[in-house]
DNA sequence: GATGAATGAGCGTTCATTCAT
DNA sequence: GATGAATGAACGCTCATTCAT
């Protein structure tokens, strides 16, 4: 039905507006210090309306996190897919991740703000999803590195742990950039990350 | 006065008992989902008594975090100090960090639990301390790496960023170990971290 | 908008109901010995609702006092205005005051209950208002007495102090009546007050 | 026994010290905003010791009020007794009262601080005593005025109400002086009070 | 469907009083 | 007797969620 289609489109638009505002506010103050009234007011809806889109505050919060994280991994995967060779894929991976952080600094800061707590009770519901997503992402990286092993590009190290290492080198740069205001774009760190991951710190 | 000495010893013992229990509970549930009554009950004190040791819930929480973090860095620095050469110092650094995480898994999980929020309002008071501590630690690592640069052991990469990279490689292993139950001790990852940091992933 | 008008009317009605009940309870027990739960229950609202009308317990208390006091002075001034000559104005002043006390005995007893304390910390916010109101009232009386001086009705005494004297003669009668249950209406004291104020106690 | 006599003397001295400090603190902050710890610290005793002298906070408060009020009435009565004629007695009454207020401004301000509340629950225990004391004092004044009626000095007005009027004329001056800082001593108001009480405001 | 007033459970904190030392 | 640490009941206030309009 055309009517219901438009309705659904509208529904999704409104839902997205709420999520967008919620992201800003949650990023700024953390889960507990944000009230539903605040989100309602910022997104231009009534408190009651919020409950037509989300079961409750927690659902709103976890949905927001969940969808944004999905977006991040989607973007990264997409970028990597379009690269040709192994080195290019690794570089794309780093690049896409750094760009996402750069463009979504506030959101990412949610995961920094003390780097703690909310996954506690509130997040029980998406905790596993986040972990699974992360492991899936690691597996995704692992697959790339495995083909790098096969092709003889990489040293024979455990691919899973290499994936973890690469992932956290990216994190290292991201966290630093988020914590201290820097004029250089985060993406300028790509070369260094790629270099230290591939060659290590030791002189040949 | 002997009497006041004993009193002070007792005071410190009780204070430590509270902190110990609080650590467990906060680690399990996060700041907001823990009540003072819960901590009181777990530590065998009355609610009122808690307030003789700490100004409030926030003070108790931040004190607990702060003192434990100090302990961690102290232990690491100590271990590193006792190592002779550069490679030994780097190895000690990795080792001490991994051991601390291994022996204080619950505490460390505080910083994982969603890796977010608490530094928000609650932690304004120690946020800067945590950041400062981290940067001081990075500087500490940097100093070691600089002497490695001088001695010709390391490639000529920016030492600060190398420090960040090393620090996050350690984190990578710690986070993985904390997130998934593993039978192998975390410390078994030392060799890999050292290896990938020094030689990188690329075949020579 | 009609709708918002009705809403506002309802809001004011409810607010007035709360204030009315609060007045009774505060009058009976004093600020500190009244709980918000008590007021909520007495006025038929939930605890939370109280906070939609007043910022907190203190605000509720001071608002109640403040509005009632305004009402008292308004009534008195109105009555006095409508009197023709000086003697009539003085008589009206006494009369209006006595009637207010008679009709608002519980409220007035708030200012008797030990005649103390609350203006302390709690009332810092309206303390000055009460004092200002009182002094404004004294000035109002003073103006009447001054015209009495001009017209030759009154002896040449300092008008400010005469105003204080008259005000406290009224208080004297009110306090007595509030403290001891009396069958005679308070207003029956008007003649005596007027008499002793105008002629004093001494035989001519 | 001499020993017990000294003990008792010491007991009374300490008790008086506590009451003296308590008076200052209660006068400054009101009953509810003063803690036993505060009184203990100010009077140089331990919290526990306070309970050897007084059954509790309320007892301490009411005792302090009660004894000070007794002192006031004693002083006034004494002064009045030593005056010869009726006019002198009335003048002494006014004088003694004004001097007491002047010399015990902080204490008297207890009864001003909003002129309310504390007689609420806390004071139930001495409320009646205060009222009785006041009425006894009124009777005392009444007796003087009655002899003034008999002697033909005073007009034939109800002596009880005249007593109330006189009492509140004194109050009027006291309250004003307590509320607004004045350079003139309160006792300078004696003449005016006596004048308006005896002659009234009206030109003969 | 949309609204936002109403609800009330739940928590941090205070402080008079007790009692072991 | 003197101490002051320990106790825990009690209260103000918040805010997610509901539901009458």
Q: Determine and state the CATH class of the largest domain in chain A.
A: Mainly Alpha
Distance between the ends of chain A: 68 Å
Element string of chain A (H = helix, E = strand): HHHHHHHHH
The quaternary state of the protein chains shown equals homotetramer
The biggest beta sheet of chain A reads:
none
What CATH architecture of the largest domain in chain A do you see? Orthogonal Bundle
User: CATH superfamily of the largest domain in chain A, called what?
Assistant: Tetracycline Repressor, domain 2
Percentage of residues in helical conformation of chain A:
over 70%
Instruction: Calculate the mean pLDDT score of chain A and round it.
Output: 85
Number of helices of chain A: 9
SSE class of chain A: mainly alpha
Shape of chain A: elongated
**Domains of chain A (count):** 2
For the largest interface in this structure, which chains are involved and how many residues does each contribute? Answer: A-B, 58 and 58 residues
DSSP E strands of chain A, number: 0
Radius of gyration of chain A: 20 Å
Spans of chain A of 5+ residues with little confidence (pLDDT < 50)? 114-118
What name is given to the CATH topology of the largest domain in chain A? Tetracycline Repressor, domain 2
* Percent in strands of chain A: under 5%
